[in-house]
Design goal:
The chain has 275 residues and is of the alpha+beta class. It has 11 helices and 11 strands. Strand 10 and strand 11 form a beta hairpin. The longest helix is centred in the middle third of the chain and has 24 residues. It is globular and about 35 Å long. The N terminus is likely disordered.
């Protein structure tokens, strides 16, 4: 695209010059040559751009770049940047990609200090729920033998949608075990209601808007660029309020806490087997 943006004569001249220097026109002999060529190309590009006032006016604008994290990290974040030309747009995107690559691993390595282990008392909570009102963990345990509290990243993302559908498909099996499934994320109740309607979910979703419950369970995931999310983790809480089992998608320290695939029935079967 850069070559096509130059005139045929200028490009041929660049090839001849490179051949005279025993170098490929695309692969410079040294970093200094690379810098020199990059400078000339960018200068040429800027001159060409400035000659088209309408095109330049279109490029001088506030643009919004929306980048979705991999691994169903969840909530899509938006970075708004004022750019003056296409070169700055490219630099902005490149900087964002580099920053994302360097921070994603840090997020998984330092999820949150609040950590709940098997045998611990499950942190009590009361959160807004789909269908209206609030749900308290203690109330659920008063009426059931188990509570399956699963944290997920974001309503509507591919992995989280499949995970919710798998839990939904197994509702009769959970009821037979006297277990109640509760899905928790930092999405709003409005988002949860839309997600439930779209997927036909028959169990409750809870809104952990400020992330306090996710943090208490050690299921808070922070990405410096994108913000906070609930990490994909599942806790099986017994009637006595103790954690009977837990599973993590990332960073499990022992094999029995490694989460099976949520895209098949494997994880649901994993939870049912512990009851």
């Amino acid at each position: 695209q850069l070559a096509s943006s130059l005139s045929s004569r200028a490009y041929n001249a660049r090839v001849i010059k490179a051949n005279n220097m025993n170098a490929s026109p695309c692969v410079p002999k040294s970093s200094s040559l690379l810098n020199s060529r990059a400078t000339r190309l960018l200068s040429s590009f800027d001159r060409k751009t400035s000659s088209h006032s309408s095109q330049k006016k279109m490029m001088t604008t506030t643009r919004s770049f929306v980048v979705k994290a991999t691994k169903d990290v969840g909530r899509v974040a938006t970075t708004t940047t004022t750019t003056t030309n296409r070169r700055e747009i490219i630099m902005t995107i490149a900087t964002s990609v580099v920053a994302l690559n360097t921070t994603t691993n840090k997020a998984y390595a330092s999820e949150s200090l609040g950590n709940v282990n098997v045998g611990d008392k499950a942190p009590e909570f009361t959160l807004p729920a789909t269908g209206g009102g609030t749900i308290a963990l203690s109330d659920i345990l008063a009426e059931n033998d188990y509570a399956v509290v699963y944290f997920y990243n974001q309503d509507g993302s591919t992995g989280c949608s499949i995970e919710a559908e798998r839990f939904n498909q197994a509702q009769e099996q959970f009821k037979a075990k006297k277990a109640r499934v509760l899905g928790v994320s930092m999405d709003s109740i409005e988002s949860h209601e839309g997600f439930c309607d779209k997927k036909g979910l028959t169990f409750s979703l809870l809104s952990d808007g400020d992330g306090a419950v996710s943090k208490a369970y050690g299921a808070e995931l922070t990405l410096p660029i994108f913000g906070k999310f609930s990490d994909r983790q599942t806790f099986l809480v017994g009637k006595d309020g103790l954690v009977k089992a837990k599973w993590k998608e990332m960073g499990a320290k022992v094999d029995e806490e490694k989460m099976a695939s949520v895209k098949s029935t494997a994880h649901v079967e994993q939870v049912l087997a512990k009851m």
